[in-house]
Amino acid sequence: MQPTKADLPNLQGQCVLVTRPAHQAAQQISLLGECGAVAVHLPALEICPITEADPGYALLRNQMMNLDQYAIIVCISPNAAHLALDWIDQFWPQVPDGIQWYAIGQKTAHILNQQDIPACHSTSGFNSEAMLTLPDLHDVKGKKILILRGSSGRNTLAETLSERGADVEYATLYERKCPEYDDILIKSTIYNSALSSILITSGEALRNFVTVAAGGQKQFSSDSLHQLNLVVPSERIADQARYLGFTRIKVAQGPDDLSMVAALNSAHDSETNA
């Protein structure tokens, strides 16, 4: 069962680092404020939409102009959903009929549904594995499938659908980049803010955060960060965090803002576990 606002903890006096991209952090920061926490924001991902200057622009434009050639379209993320809708507005007076739309995660599905695109999503999880359990994605032999995503990511979905006989293509709508920060900002934000917890919503954001936290010349020791509460959305990312040295890891019920904040320890629990 997904958490509700009634499940939000008392975070009075805590300082929580938010690492969502700049355009996606507002709700998480607001929820933390409602819980009494101070939110510190340092994005660990930069989302850069594909432009005409990018090598993949011509292919993407061709794919979006020919959406009606695909039997199934899978949208990987809210970013992909928003950008895909922008492209559809350019070339299609209405979304072409006959396409089965899927989304990874309820939030992504909701973005598409609001624009009258009936996208299905798995209720059992927020990842490729959960998506692949949907019955209609088992019998895909000979079907042409387009996966809307960013420039990098896991290949599990495409590989499995290809093994099931589908003709799979990626439509790369944006690039995910590791932000660059001034060392003074890194020190003041990460090491001088008396952080109690860190919220990380993807494996790529986790790797980027570790890179950023080391500083431009890798002069900062991240040992102190390994003792902070780290909230992640899946066991897979928790395993990555353990490998990187983090020791106080909590797995949220999902990557959505409410689940991530609800997974934080309350002020009392944090004091008890310190």
From TrEMBL:
Pathway: Porphyrin-containing compound metabolism; protoporphyrin-IX biosynthesis; coproporphyrinogen-III from 5-aminolevulinate: step 3/4. InterPro entries: 4pyrrol_syn_uPrphyn_synt_sf (IPR036108), 4pyrrol_synth_uPrphyn_synth (IPR003754), UROS/Hem4 (IPR039793). It catalyses: hydroxymethylbilane = uroporphyrinogen III + H2O. Keywords: Lyase, Porphyrin biosynthesis. One of its GO terms (molecular function) is uroporphyrinogen-III synthase activity. It comes from the Bacteria. It is an enzyme of class 4 (lyase). Its EC number is 4.2.1.75. One of its GO terms (biological process) is uroporphyrinogen III biosynthetic process. Residues 31-261 form the Tetrapyrrole biosynthesis uroporphyrinogen III synthase domain. Pfam families: HEM4. Belongs to the uroporphyrinogen-III synthase family. Catalyzes cyclization of the linear tetrapyrrole, hydroxymethylbilane, to the macrocyclic uroporphyrinogen III. This is Uroporphyrinogen-III synthase. It comes from Neptunomonas qingdaonensis.
